[in-house]
Amino acid sequence: MPEPDSSPSSFTRFRALLALLITLLIGAVVIIAVTWWVVGSAPRSQAVAARDGVTVREFAQLPDEDAYPAALAIAPDGTVYTGSYETGALWSISPDGAVREIADSRSRIGSVTGLDVAPDGALYILDRIAALESKGAIVWRYQAGELNSVVRIPADPSVGLRLPDDIAVDSAGQIYISDRDPPRVWRYSSEGRNPGVFWRPSAELSAAPTGLAYDAGRNAVLISDSAQDAVYRVPASASDLAKAVDATETLFSDEARQGYGFDGIDVTPAGEIYLALLAWNRAARLERGELQMLARDFRGASDLVYDAARSRLIVTNWNQFSLGFGTRPQLPFALDAVEFAETP
């Protein structure tokens, strides 16, 4: 009589594989659920100083449970502006932390991802229309109590924006917008016309231009690159893309690729450069080509601005994990002030 086949049948192997896959899936769901619960129930953290001569305090609390402040701008008089990535609401904050919502912003703006104050005092708002979706963008201008659209940009990789991130305005009123897909920086006239690609990385570089700031002292645009852990300076006088690329200076590049998640960037009248490290939840200063950590443990350090009159930084707590995964944010939403014992 022949020996029975000792190898398992195809059906048996399939059942074993299916059982393994189900077990792995259940394990993954449990891990995600536990992570969701732990993050959602964690106590509200507070940023702290990371070096001597620096203090951190809460500057202003924002209303609503969906404020999600991703961007900042500051006016010459010290008025700080921020806006909701989720609802489009805009807030004006006095130097002593009093918060006022800007009328009609919540009903007209979809998702605030970038802000800048132009030389004429107007606030420019980069609106990505819908949080966490690619629908192009609208640039708004707010001045003297009036909110007006400047230009609507389609979600078209050839002529528009896929992942708009930040906005800057130079001394001539030209508007710069960073886009991470594909990586480039667009430039528009002050009226929102004549769009063209102002800057893009070299072909061999996998970049992600994220934060923008205008350096008036050097008439240049500063660009933070979250993919390369780099900071670039590009002359605003560059008349075309080729000249802008050729004239690009790399002010910082960490070849170790520590994943800082460079996001917001600002520059002082004296040329000091500050960076928000979203992945590390820190604020840092660029000193002679080195990154000096100033404060840590923010709840989403996506942007910062320097208040020269008061020798301080204002930093966001975006709480982006809660936005992306549906956990309860660490309320109330707030902005923090990083203050210096001596002027940097």
Q: Hey, roughly how much beta strand do the residues contain? A: 35-45%
Query: Gap between N and C termini, in Å?
Result: 92 Å
Could you describe the largest sheet, including whether it forms a barrel? Answer: 5 strands, antiparallel
Please tally the helical runs, counting DSSP H or I stretches of 4 or more residues: 4
Tell me what the CATH architecture of the largest domain is.
6 Propeller
- Helix and strand content put the structural class at mainly beta
In the predicted model, the low-confidence regions spanning at least 5 consecutive residues are none
Give the beta-strand count.
25
Query: What is CATH's topology name of the largest domain?
Result: Neuraminidase
Radius of gyration, in Å, reads 23 Å
> Could you name the CATH homologous superfamily of the largest domain?
TolB, C-terminal domain
Gross morphology: globular
